[in-house]
Design a protein that fits this description.
This protein has 128 residues and is mainly α. The chain has one domain. It has four helices and no strands. The protein is rod-shaped.
């Protein structure tokens, strides 16, 4: 083999090895980019689901808030009277605290049931 052929062979082998390394490096980088894209899409889907569930919960709380207010009106019970009745039942709450819970709609179903019992009433389903 002539020296020119030897140099050409060495350069050819070097080129083949180098191109394989470069290709592997490129593919690894693409894999990382794609993984981050997938994670980003999953996060977006998760946030959309959480937003939807939050909107649904807000809607349910508004319905409960209206039903609770209607029950108070129908029974002729104001916030101060209800707070007094709840305190007599063992729940320690001020009329201001009760007014805040009602206006925010941030009460548990257990608290709602206590209030209904204090007003001596039941929740009745009504058409929308």
């Amino acid at each position: 083999m002539s020296p020119a052929q030897a140099v050409a062979s060495v350069l050819g082998v070097t080129l083949i090895i180098t191109s394989g390394v470069v290709l592997c490096s490129y593919l690894d980088k693409r894999l990382e980019v794609r993984k981050s894209e997938i994670l980003s899409q999953e996060k977006q889907e998760l946030l959309a689901t959480q937003r939807f569930l939050s909107e649904q919960e807000t809607h349910r709380l508004k319905i409960l808030q209206v039903a609770f207010g209607n029950a108070m009106i129908q029974r002729g019970v104001d916030v101060e009277e209800l707070a007094t009745r709840l305190n007599e039942m063992g729940s320690q709450i001020s009329s201001g605290g009760l007014a805040n819970k009602i206006s925010r709609g941030g009460f548990s179903s257990a608290f709602l049931m206590q209030c209904m019992e204090a007003m001596d009433t039941n929740l009745i389903a009504s058409p929308r």
